[in-house]
Design goal:
- The chain has 552 residues and is α+β, with helices and mostly antiparallel strands.
- The protein has 17 helices and 17 strands.
- The strands form four sheets. It has an eight-stranded mixed β-sheet, sandwiched between helices. It has a five-stranded antiparallel β-sheet with strand order 2-3-1-6-7, with helices on one face. The chain has a two-stranded antiparallel ribbon with strand order 4-5.
- The N terminus is likely disordered.
Length: 552
């Protein structure tokens, strides 16, 4: 039997495509496995997949006494399937990287979801364009930006960048790269990331092609809504740049938004110019930009026995982006990149504007679920910036062209809609949700070789009205459980800057574990700062664990 220390062979007469009536199972609890080593036995397959959850059955397909290199694994729960698809896809077993897919009836894998290739006709028509009026006509002719009324923001960015350089040199290059990538997509379609396909790496020249087609609004089946697409792709972020290049999106009377969009387009043009120069000089880098959709198995938080990790608290106004060699937090929209392709200009949008290759992930990353986060690695820092929000302006080129940073993008619950909802963030279900979200953000598989320190800050504690102290403790538990030390940037929160180091020092001296702190956070009797400003979360923690720290 599978699970015993004997080789597990299907009946030699059992052919691929036939269903075994004794092992139908439930489709939602099964994964289809390919690229299994011919020497792998059934008990090894079962043992390997037990990392994701309790395995009920594992089967390898045989024909004529020989392994077919394919099979399936049945778990006791659908949740374990999601963990396996996210964490064990492309992980080696007996020298072969297993390929996993969701299961459908009849011993088949679920059909993958593909990106529709960009329309080559748009780039072909734009190659000879030399005026804004003609470029607008070409973009609209593709049908991917039906509501586009002007490209005045792009015109303004071109004026700042240099008209002659753009029309005579840069636009032909953009069109050529868009065409090149369109042909590549037709030959090898791209997958939307999800169960069974949770990782995608792009060569840097592929990134140029994705962004070139986005600027030309040539991605079909991705009509722009707000930060997301309209039907038929409502669960995907927008990718065409029609809202970014158009003055109507900014609002004709809202010039700060216009200038913010203009600054982001200037940075994008700087990106294209740098890539053109590299291709001309034959110095184009051959490394990759990689995106991971992470959905780890939720933990029994109260059972954790890992000591809380050290925390360093940075000075006020110190930016997460100033940290080197760490996993940097991106306080994200649930649609990856948020408003970067319209008038958004806060933390996430600025990050994506100054590192344009991060925008590429919008092509393949769906809306984040409750226990999902996105990790990104390898995007180049192209441009510096000044200002924040509507005051963002484009600076000069970034000087370090070799730094390849890790980021982790995770969204927060919006508690800012009403006071009652803000109070609900201390309820056990809300705390558990945030623990699982932070766990997805920080628990990267070892094979990814990510940094062992996370740089983070006031997650969801701005416009979303999250309690900064509660959120800091939740992140501390998740980071410690993931084996990460934490660097905390309180930015302009003086209270956090003064109190967090005292709480950390006392908790470490007490030898508190992740389980002890999580158990208290999940009790449901904490009062949020919004409810009683004279008895904040740190003060309540002080009393609970007799830390001996007066924080109020």
């Amino acid at each position: 039997l599978v699970g015993s220390r004997v080789a597990c062979l299907c009946s030699p007469s059992l052919s691929v495509g036939m269903a075994n009536p004794d092992r139908q199972g439930v489709a939602e609890c099964k994964v289809y496995v390919e690229n299994i080593s011919y020497r792998t036995q059934g008990w090894r397959l079962r043992e390997h997949f037990a990392q994701a959850g309790e395995v009920k059955w594992a089967q390898i397909f045989f024909w004529g006494g020989r392994s077919q290199g394919r099979g399936w694994v049945e778990f006791t729960s659908p949740e374990a399937v999601q963990v396996a698809l996210t964490t064990l896809n492309e992980v080696e077993l007996d020298g072969r990287a297993l390929v996993l897919d969701p299961w459908i009836a009849g011993w088949k894998k679920a059909a993958p979801r593909f990106v529709t290739p960009p329309l080559a006709k748009v780039a072909e028509a734009a190659q000879s364009v030399r005026t804004a009026e003609d470029l607008l006509t070409v973009i609209k002719s593709g049908g991917c930006a039906p509501h586009l009324q002007d490209i005045k923001v792009l015109e303004s960015a071109v004026d700042m960048f240099g008209k002659d350089v753009f029309w005579e040199v840069l636009l032909p290059f953009i069109c050529a790269e868009a065409l090149r990538f369109a042909k590549s997509c037709e030959a090898t379609p791209l997958h939307i990331l999800g169960p069974g396909a949770s990782t995608k790496s792009f060569m840097r020249r592929e990134c140029v092609g994705v962004l070139a087609n986005a600027l030309l609004c040539a991605w079909p089946d991705r009509p722009t809504g707000d930060v997301r697409c309209l039907a038929p792709a409502e669960d995907l972020p927008s990718i065409n740049m029609d809202q970014l290049i158009c003055s109507i999106a900014a609002g004709r009377s809202r010039w700060p938004a216009f200038e913010c969009q203009q600054a982001k387009l200037q940075m994008l043009l700087m990106y294209f110019k740098r890539q053109l120069n590299r291709l001309t000089a034959d110095t184009f880098p051959d490394d990759r930009v990689t995106f991971f959709l992470n959905q780890p198995w939720p933990l029994d938080w109260a059972a954790g026995n890992v000591p809380l990790a050290p925390v360093q608290v940075r000075p006020l106004r110190h930016s997460i982006d100033a940290e080197k060699s760490v996993l940097r937090a991106d306080f994200a929209n649930r649609f990856y990149g948020g408003g970067v392709l319209k008038n958004g200009c806060v933390q996430e949008e600025i990050l994506f504007a100054t590192h344009p290759e991060l925008i590429v992930g919008r092509l393949i990353l769906p809306e984040m679920g409750g226990n999902q986060a996105i990790q990104m690695h390898g995007a180049e820092h192209i441009a510096n910036h000044t200002g924040y929000s509507s005051g963002v302006r484009c600076g000069d080129y970034a000087s370090d062209t070799t730094e390849r940073v890790w980021w982790t993008a995770f969204d927060a619950v919006d508690y800012g809609k009403d006071a009652q909802r803000a109070v609900s963030q201390v309820q056990p279900e809300s705390v558990r949700h945030d623990l699982n979200k932070a766990w997805a953000a920080f628990s990267l598989p070892t094979k990814r070789a990510a940094p062992k320190v996370v740089g983070t800050g006031n997650w969801g504690a701005g416009a979303f009205k999250g309690d900064a102290q509660l959120k800091a403790l939740i992140q501390w538990v998740a980071a410690s459980q993931a084996g990460l030390e934490m660097i905390y940037c309180p930015f302009d929160n003086e209270r956090m800057h003064m109190q967090l180091p005292l709480v950390v020092q006392a908790a470490l001296a007490k030898g508190l574990t992740t389980g002890a702190l999580a158990k208290w956070l999940l009790k449901g009797d904490i009062r949020a700062l919004n409810e009683d400003p004279n008895d904040d979360v740190f003060s309540q923690m002080d009393r609970e664990f007799s830390l001996g720290v007066c924080t109020v």
